[in-house]
Q: What sequence folds into this?
């Protein structure tokens, strides 16, 4: 959809910021999109005014106060879309992580997996079914290991090749 492409564009733009990484860029994009939605629905009464954004950049000691950003993010998102577990948006779909892990990080769960997808529980092994996460976050792997694991996972799980190394073309806006 057009909204999805806009979301991806906003996220991509933020990922180029010197002090940002994919998680913080995603978090800020969520606040922007939900804030714009609430501003429209409220007739301009309330929305997101970038009040958390300063916490994504280094302070005088050179450190990024990311914990403060996370606290701000939770508070602002709660004000905009409701409390944890009850958030509502017509654009962003919120999933309760206590019911479904949508940010599966195998390196956090299975130390010593050695890059083996079965040891990460992403492929079946020894009578155990594979886990079926919505998103696999390859954090904790080196760049080459990450690419190899991702490529093999896509090939074995979905019969998709990462050889093209490109995204699908954008649908027409008409």
A:
């Amino acid at each position: 959809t057009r909204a999805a492409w806009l979301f991806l564009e906003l996220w991509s733009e933020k990922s180029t910021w010197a002090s940002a990484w994919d998680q913080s860029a995603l978090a800020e994009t969520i606040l922007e999109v939900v804030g714009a939605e609430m501003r429209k629905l409220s007739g301009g009464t309330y929305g997101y005014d970038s009040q958390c954004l300063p916490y994504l950049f280094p302070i005088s000691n050179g450190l990024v106060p990311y914990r403060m950003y996370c606290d701000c993010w939770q508070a602002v998102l709660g004000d905009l879309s409701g409390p944890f577990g009850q958030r509502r948006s017509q654009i962003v779909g919120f999933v309760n992580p206590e019911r479904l892990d949508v940010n599966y990080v195998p390196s956090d769960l299975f130390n010593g997996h050695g890059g083996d997808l079965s040891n990460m529980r992403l492929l079946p092994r020894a009578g155990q079914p594979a886990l079926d996460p919505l998103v696999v976050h390859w954090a904790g792997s080196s760049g080459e290991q990450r690419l190899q694991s991702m490529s093999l996972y896509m090939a074995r799980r979905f019969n998709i090749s990462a050889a093209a190394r490109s995204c699908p073309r954008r649908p027409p806006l008409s």
Summary: The chain has a mean pLDDT of 84.
